Amino acid sequence: MMRKAKCKMKTTIKFILLITLLFSCSKVQRFEKDNLQEISPRSKSIALERRTTLSFIRENLALQKKKGLADIFREQRIIRFSRENYSGNKGIHLLIDQESRRKGIDPDLIRAIVRVESNFKVHAKSKAGALGLMQLMPSTAQALQVKNVYNARENIQGGVRFFSYLLKEFDDTNLAIAAYNAGPEAVKRYNGVPPFSETQKYLLKVKNFYAKYRRM
């Protein structure tokens, strides 16, 4: 009887252990399933973010190949150039716009001339004695009835009036720019842009700045 009771007890214990083990396995599986469901959306989000980043990089690389690094650097220089030249000279630019349009001249061309002549410095004075924003010589300022060359409005009015006269005189923008630097007599004498190094460099600078201002 004792042996049968012991066998029965052993069987019962084994059965209880088996049920406990099965229950534990079931719990572990359920835990893993729940956690995988929680992790899965986050994994998808990370994967999507990575794909988006890679796509952005590929697109930018393709754009760089298409446009060329030179174009990208040129655009960056133009942005930096515009910030430097427009930041503290808003009043001067407004005067340039007003006076240029009054004479039917592209304001960006006058802007380029002012940039080369004085770099937008109202009290600029050259070694040759040219004065103000558009670097008027005293005799030219007097002929143009500019009373105060260091007054921004008067200087721009006089300079624009003089450049307007040169455009009508030569009917050519390049010749008018050259004449603004070397004088109209020099352009007439050489029947074109004078062969002076300073005038030729001046013409090139004005045209370069003009192109930059037009792209803004």
What can you tell me about this protein's structure?
This protein has 216 residues and is mainly α. Helices cover 79% and strands 0% of the residues. The chain contains nine helices and no strands. Helix 7 packs across helix 8. The longest helix has 66 residues, at 2-67. The radius of gyration is 40 Å and the shape is elongated. The termini are far apart.
Q: Topology, pairings included?
A:
Layout: H1 2-67, H2 69-86, H3 90-102, H4 107-118, H5 138-143, H6 152-170, H7 173-182, H8 184-190, H9 197-215
The major pleated sheet works out as: none
Q: Please mark out the parts with pLDDT under 50 across 5 or more consecutive residues, or reply none.
A: 36-40, 77-84
Please tell me the overall pLDDT: 78
Tally the beta strands: 0
Overall 3D shape: elongated
- Number of distinct helices: 9
Percent helix range: over 70%
Radius of gyration, CA atoms, in whole angstroms = 40 Å
What is this entry, summarized?
The chain contains nine helices and no strands. The protein has 216 residues and is mostly helical.
Features of the shown structure:
single chain; 216 residues; mainly alpha; elongated
